[in-house]
Structures are given as C-alpha cells and as structure tokens.
Design a protein that fits this description.
This is TnsA endonuclease N-terminal domain-containing protein. With 247 residues, the chain is of the alpha+beta class. It has 8 helices and 12 strands.
Length: 247
C-alpha cells in the first residue's frame, strides 16, 4: 500500500488492506471491503517481543470466542478484558486491517487496535491510547478512522483503558472466566439465593463450602448471570450481589 500514489488513494478515498481466510493480503476501497468479518480477521501487524522493550505484548484468551487475541501493552490487554466481559460483544480481533488515505500529498495509513462486532451486528473500531500520549500524528490517524467509520456505519471509540476500580474488579473475575469454573447444581443454587440482593460471601456460604461456591459465583458474575457494582466499589465479601430480573 505504501507504493500507491497519493493521487490514486485520493481518488479511491479510504482504502483497506487485510488478510483473507487463506492469509493472502487483499486490497479494497472502504466502500467495497467494509463488510468483511474483521472481527475474525488475522492481524496485519505482528506483536514483537525483545529485550529491553517498554511495552508488554502478549495474548489474551477470550471466553467470548474461545481464541487468543494479541495485545501490545497492558493497557490494550485491559481493553481486551473489558470487551471480553461485555455481554453485548460477540467477537473481536486485534490489528484487523490497515486503513489508508491521502493527506497533504502523502499516503497515510493506520491499523486500529481492535475491531469488535456487537450482538445487533454493529461494527466497532477501537483504538487504545491514553490522552497524554495522543500526539499530532496519532490525533490525525484517529480523526481519519472516525471519518471512515462514519462513512460505513461503524462506531469508533478511542480509549485510555478502563477506570481503576473496574479494571481491578475485572482482573479478579477474569480468573474465573473459563467454563471449567461452572458447575450446574451450584450455579442454580446461587441464582436462587441471590434472587434477593445479598452480600457476596453470605450468599456463597448459604449454598455450601465457600471454597466450592465462590469460583462458580465469580464465573456467574463474569457471564452476567449475577450482577454487582463493579465500577465504583472494589469487589469484596460485603458486595451486594443480585440475579438480574428475568424479564
């Protein structure tokens, strides 16, 4: 894509470069390629790891998709964690495409950090960058991504990561996100106990040995079958837990 002239890109408007299911690089104008399932696309960039680097790349195992998704920093990992927890998001992928456009007679390009698909079919593009790290080049890239998303009906969101309390709570619950933490009989008993709002530890102890019931309870909180305040209160024994209204 860097070999394209600015004139050609200008005529085409926004342009996408991505990998198809066979791993072959594809190029398409945004107006043509916007409906690719980017939430399942392979990354167009690698996640290098080397001695002395200041960021911490890695892989997040997603309970939503059952697959690993790459990240380039702990902040990106936390954003992945939030998307994995969000019951409205059904799939997501990292570095799904290059967006290319012309500006000031030059070809510019940017790969967003994530593309997600919501339950209603809406596309969501996510870039992760704290406010104090948004320099002019990044600001231009985010503005272009916002315009491109508006053209095709995607949502665009730039985030500096979750707030500290939510981050802390989700990091704890994420340890119980795997299906292996679910036990049907205990889960049904917990759902019954928490039909009335009850303190977390008290409800767990009503069902049985807390060493057995707490992992199931945390899994139900992760999956949304039980709820509590995760944004403003640190999760603890006195946290009030309830089962959502089945209606």
């Amino acid at each position: 894509m860097t070999a394209l002239s600015a004139t050609r890109v200008e005529r085409a408007g926004f342009h996408l470069t991505f990998l198809d299911d066979a791993g072959v690089e594809q190029h398409a104008p945004l107006a043509v390629g916007w409906n690719v399932q980017f939430e399942r696309a392979a990354a167009v960039r690698s996640f290098p790891s080397f001695r002395g680097q200041r960021n911490f790349p890695g892989w997040w195992w997603s309970a939503t998709t059952g697959e690993h998704v790459g990240y380039e920093s702990w902040v990106e990992r936390d954003v992945l964690m939030v998307m994995d927890f969000d019951q409205d998001i059904v799939a997501f992928a990292s570095q799904p495409f290059w967006l290319t456009w012309a500006a000031d007679d030059r070809v510019r390009r940017h790969a967003p950090d994530y593309f997600a698909r919501t339950r209603d079919g809406q596309g969501l593009v996510v870039d992760v960058r704290p406010d104090d790290r948004v320099d002019p080049a990044a600001s231009e890239a985010f503005a272009a991504m916002g315009r491109a998303c508006e053209e095709v009906g995607w949502k665009f969101h730039r985030t500096g990561g979750p707030a500290p309390v939510l981050r802390s709570n989700l990091r704890w619950l994420a340890g119980y996100r795997h299906r292996r933490c679910y036990q049907e009989e205990l889960a049904q008993d917990l759902l019954h106990v928490f039909r009335a709002p009850t303190a977390l530890l008290r409800g767990a102890q009503q069902v049985g040995d807390q060493l057995m019931t707490l992992p199931v309870l945390y899994h139900l909180l992760w999956t949304g079958h039980l709820t509590t305040d995760l944004e403003f209160s640190v999760l603890g024994p006195a946290a009030i837990v309830r089962a959502p209204d089945p209606r």
